[in-house]
Amino acid sequence: METTSLNRLIEDFNELPFEDREYAVELIRKQLIEAKRERIVGRAKEAVSNLKKGKTKKGSGEDLLKDLEND
Length: 71
Prior knowledge:
Elements: H1 3-15, H2 18-52, H3 61-70
């Protein structure tokens, strides 16, 4: 989002009555939670796909650390 658009959004928000601002904040908070859930679902699907394609590695935590050190 452009800075000017964000500034305008904030200005418009501050012109709202207090109760409407409270409602808007709660609505935005819920939308962010849902967006985070959707991102998690997307990452989970990607992980399952990578597992099925054999693109993942298996091992202990110690194996993981050793692998990371070798990169």
